[in-house]
Recover the amino acids of this structure.
């Protein structure tokens, strides 16, 4: 039976936190989720939380991070916004999770077939959605390799923009968070980029997007 490892979390390194997520995603991908005793987990974490990782992910209903990484309550500090955008408030939330709660790893996770990315590819601006699109725009402009239509009708184009968007949001974090940069430099936390594939269930961590 799964026991919540709350007490050992101060000793977890950023690399170990990444390995826990990779292992958890392997279980999810292969439909081998752990059995979770929710009663005992709730009891262990009722006084305090000490998540070992933080994920900036998309709000997409198909990308629930606790399921994808086969983790439990109290394991992942989850910041989710359409298009996994690193808005100032999202960055503040990540800072809070690392500085005050002791999270050891920040994952910026995009996903395949992302609706917010498609909206950005189509330059959609309705309601307050334009605020989100504005932060994804640099990823749309960054994509130069795919031929054909530069809008959501071109799947290959959309997937490449999803990939670039992870890089763009990581860059925003690095530009706007001296607090997280200092923690990365002191090796207290790591920052990695990842893409979740809706079809295979696999999270691919990008080796060129790792700061730890
Ligand atoms: Zn999405």
């Amino acid at each position: 039976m799964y026991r919540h490892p709350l007490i050992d979390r101060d000793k977890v390194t950023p690399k170990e936190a990444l390995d826990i997520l990779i292992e958890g995603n392997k279980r999810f991908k292969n439909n081998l989720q752990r059995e979770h005793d929710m009663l005992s987990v709730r009891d262990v974490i009722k006084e305090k939380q000490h998540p070992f990782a933080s994920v900036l992910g998309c709000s997409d209903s198909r990308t629930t991070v606790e399921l994808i990484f086969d983790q439990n309550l109290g394991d992942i500090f989850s910041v989710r916004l359409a298009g996994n955008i690193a808005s100032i408030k999202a960055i503040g939330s990540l800072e809070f999770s690392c500085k005050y709660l002791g999270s050891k790893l920040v994952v910026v996770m995009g996903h395949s077939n992302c609706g917010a990315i498609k909206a950005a590819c189509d330059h959609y601006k309705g309601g307050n959605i334009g605020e989100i699109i504005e932060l994804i725009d640099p990823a749309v402009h960054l994509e130069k390799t795919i031929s054909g239509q530069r809008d959501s009708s071109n799947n290959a184009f959309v997937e490449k923009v999803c990939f670039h968007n992870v890089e763009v949001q990581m860059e925003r974090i690095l530009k706007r968070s001296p607090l997280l940069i200092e923690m990365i430099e002191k090796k207290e936390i790591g920052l990695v980029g990842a893409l979740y594939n809706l079809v295979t269930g696999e999270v691919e961590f990008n080796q060129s997007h790792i700061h730890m």
Remarks:
- The beta strands are 53-57, 76-80, 105-111, 190-196, 203-211.
- The radius of gyration is 17 Å.
